[in-house]
Amino acid sequence: MTKSTIKQFFWMVSMLVLFGFMACNNPEPAATKTAAPETPAMSEPAPGDTSMQLIHAMEKVNGGWGALSALKDVQFDYKYDDKAKGIDQSVEKYIFADETSWGSYSEHNVNVLPGTEGQVTQLYMDGKASISHDGKPVTDPKAIGGTVFLRQANYYWFTMMYKLADPGAVHEYLGKEMIGEINYDKVKITFKGTGKDVDDTYICYFNPINHLVDQFYFSLPAMGINEPIIKMELEYKTMNGVYVNTLRKAYFPDGKGGYNLGGEYTTSNIKFDNGFTKSDLAI
Predict the structure, then answer these.
(1) Rg (the chain; Cα; Å)
(2) Which residues are registered as beta bridge partners of 183?
(3) Is the pTM here over 0.90, yes or no?
(4) Spacing of C-alpha 177 from chain mean position
């Protein structure tokens, strides 16, 4: 990809908010297609399998999928601050056992019915998406497609660091890279069995001190960005015995060898084990 093409994509992505464009063109992200609701507990990695050893070390710290799924469900406030277009503000509710994903937006200037007022609620349950606006069903195919993508994407971002060893994930150790005073271990993650011509790619940077992923790069094949050049930085907090990613910062290449901050994702007021049922989240 040329520098001029990268620059063009930076502005396209920042204006279309990374995932909004993909909602209509690729309603199911590759990463969520390969994710299994019942992720098996990770066994001790084979000697010499550096990638899985790094993931295993991370799971010893964050508790792994077993610790997260034992909490049954979660509710939190979610704010997406797009530096070009504005804010999406929602309350998110997920059920881990079946990956039910519910979100209700009090502010929606970017990805969810932009240009409208009122409360917008999305649901993805049992493979079906639904969306309502001030309690009235929305049937527009683009809005439904956007709901499929965003509900799955939001759920995956929340659970991502607990699902790196999922079936269908392919890992490759890329060696070390010094950033500041930390010598990170890099692991490339792709996916098999997605049916795509070009699959999504992540390059995760494992911190050897705390064993967490401090940042990763990823690709957007649906937009012609086939190389992992978009950067995401992460911050965590511990609660209920697990590590929750409470702040993500997305940076896009500027075509000049640098990066610009495109958006921030903030997770707050997190509550686990609320006793949610499917009927509770129906819209």
Answers:
(1) 18
(2) 178
(3) no
(4) 24
Q: Which residues contact 266 (CB under 8 A, 6 or more apart)?
A: 78, 79, 81, 246, 247
Residues with Cβ within 8 Å of residue 158, at least 6 apart in sequence:
74, 92, 94, 244, 245, 267
Which candidate, 238, 233, 235, 203, places its Cα nearest to that of 217?
Answer: 203
Neighbouring CB atoms inside 10 A of 50's CB total: 17
State the DSSP H helix or E strand holding residue 149, giving kind and residue range, or none if neither. helix 141-159
Residue 42's pLDDT is what?
60
Helix (H, G, I), strand (E, B) or coil at 11: helix
The pLDDT tens digits of the residues spanning 212-244 come to: 999 999 998 867 889 999 999 999 999 999 999
* Res. 181: pLDDT tops 60: yes
Cβ atoms of 149 and 22 within 8 Å: the answer is yes
Distance CA 248, CA 213 (A): 12
Per-residue pLDDT reduced to its tens digit, 100-154: 999 999 999 999 999 999 999 999 999 999 999 999 999 999 999 999 989 999 9
Q: Right CATH number for 3-281 from 2.50.20, 3.40.30, 2.40.320, 1.10.10? A: 2.50.20
Using alpha carbons, select from 53, 29, 100 the residue that is nearest to residue 211. 53
Spatial CA neighbour of 260 closest among 84, 85, 111: 84
**C-alpha span between 230 and 27 (Å, rounded):** 20
Could you tell me how many residues make up the chain?
283
Question: Which residue from 248, 234, 254 is spatially nearest to 62, judged by alpha carbons?
Answer: 234
Burial 100-130 (b: 16+ CB within 10 A, else e): bbbbbbebbbbbbbeeeeeebbbbbbeeebb
Residue 45 CA: distances (Å) to CA of 50, 52, 54, 106, 185? 8, 6, 9, 45, 16
